[in-house]
Write a structure and sequence with these properties.
about 230 residues; two-stranded antiparallel ribbon
């Protein structure tokens, strides 16, 4: 599912070169086909909301956050039909539904913010997993950086998986105009997929090991198809 995010972002950027980096994205009136795809996405969201509303009250904070995550995950999975649509309007359809998905993410962010420990992070692995998923998808980048700092001492433990920490660290670094530390993010440069702007390429595997990220740089390059046309 994580692959949907860069695919959607690329499609939105193609639709409007002056897009801001995060929602709300500019939109334009959609064709009948585009409206149908956006409507199908909304119908799926309404169906999931109805299913969640029919459940008894959550028995724990973990369950509450899990239900919130189900809604945002279903929203991202439901983008697949739009991503498979003709490219001429794809980005504009995505912009419309992504703005609505961003409202779900914003609501989840506020819910997580209210229950954060005064210091540090959650000690229960299941609760941490659900909270981390919300933090990964937030559009409140200051809050995301706060979460990243909170979980740093826990990277590579059962509380925070090392690879997930490394990937979010690099995403935040690139967004802030800094170099990647763990070389987890690939981009398209001159028509070729590449991993660029790395702090110390020779020490990437050692730095990954320090935070419990078990995948080697060579394995990452293969998985992300570095060197292939894009």
């Amino acid at each position: 599912m994580r692959l949907l995010i860069p695919l959607a972002a690329a499609a939105i950027a193609t639709a409007a070169l002056a897009q801001p980096a995060k929602p709300p994205f500019p939109t334009r009136p959609l064709s009948a086909e585009g409206q149908a795809l956006a409507g199908a996405w909304r119908s799926r969201m309404d169906a999931v909301r109805a299913e969640l509303a029919a459940l008894p009250p959550p028995a724990s904070l973990t369950e509450e956050l899990a239900r919130r995550n189900r809604l945002q995950r279903e929203g991202r999975l439901a983008l697949s039909r739009i991503l498979a649509s003709p490219p001429q309007e794809r980005g504009w359809i995505l912009a419309v539904v992504w703005n609505e998905l961003a409202l779900i993410d914003a609501d989840n962010t506020e819910a997580l913010r209210r229950v954060l420990p005064a210091k540090g992070w959650f000690s229960d692995p299941a609760l941490s997993h659900e909270a981390w998923d919300i933090a990964q998808h937030t559009n409140d980048w200051d809050f995301q950086k706060e979460v990243l700092a909170r979980v740093e001492p826990l990277a590579g433990t059962p509380i925070i998986e090392g690879g997930a920490y490394a990937k979010l660290y690099d995403r935040v670094a690139e967004r802030d105009g800094r170099r990647q530390r763990y070389a987890t993010q690939a981009s398209c440069a001159a028509g070729v997929r590449s991993i660029q702007n790395v702090e110390d390429s020779d020490r990437v595997d050692a730095l990954r090991a320090q935070v419990g990220h078990r995948e080697t740089l060579a394995e990452t390059r293969m998985r992300l198809k570095v060197g292939e046309p894009c």
